[in-house]
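Retro notes, structure queue

What went well: the backlog is down to a handful. What didn't: a couple of records were mislabeled last round, so from now on we paste the full input next to the output in the thread. Example, using Single-stranded DNA-binding protein from Bacillus salipaludis:
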Amino acid sequence: MINQVTLVGRLTKDPELKTTSDGTPVTQVTLAVSRNFRNQNGEIEADFVLCTLWRKAAENTAQYCRKGSVVGVTGRLHTRNYEKEGKRVYITEVIGEQIRFLGAKPHVDNSSPSPSPTPAPAPSQTQSPNSEPREKKEEVPVGS
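Corresponding output:
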């Protein structure tokens, strides 16, 4: 049997890191996942999926993600239940086994004008018109 789920969506609120009684980090996030079709009113609807992340995935998500962050979660579907006020309550969630941080919510800052793009310099005499200018390459550290 296969039980594997892959979702890409936006976090609906800031993740909150918690720890279990034995000290294991955990966070629950809800992903808003857009459907790939429009409803009768022409609007794109979304499904809201509860995802539970454990250990390092929980810590990193709480540290680096905020409401509106785009993430990809791969995991397994899990259903649990409990009794509340004499009624059985069922919860279906994704237990995240892997999370990818795909982008942040665009930040709009109206206090300062956006810089205008700088035009590319004209080719120098030593450079042929068909060659591309050489750029200094920088290494960008990747977070774990």
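Agreed that this is the format going forward. Reviewer comment attached to the example: Strands lie at 5-11, 18-19, 25-38, 44-54, 70-84, 87-103.
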